[in-house]
Amino acid sequence: MEPRDLFPVGAYELRLTDIDLAHLRAVVPCEVKNPRRVLPLAYWRWRVSQLLASKHLMPAQLTIAHALLDQIDAGVESAPLAKAS
Domain extents for the chain? Predict the structure, then answer.
């Protein structure tokens, strides 16, 4: 008998991933364009990377996650400005 851990993905987990991706699709484009970001792009890159590390994404979910990474990588993280002396 094979252990159940070989197939740990259920509909609930896939749905949570869909919800997470929907949130990221709504937020990432705004954050990339906004010069006064609420959170740094590194945070959003980490969020997407965590999803990609889950190893149970469907092909459509993989496509969305990679597109989000492309958007994040296209954004330029602005460095803090030095004070004039």
Answer: 10-74
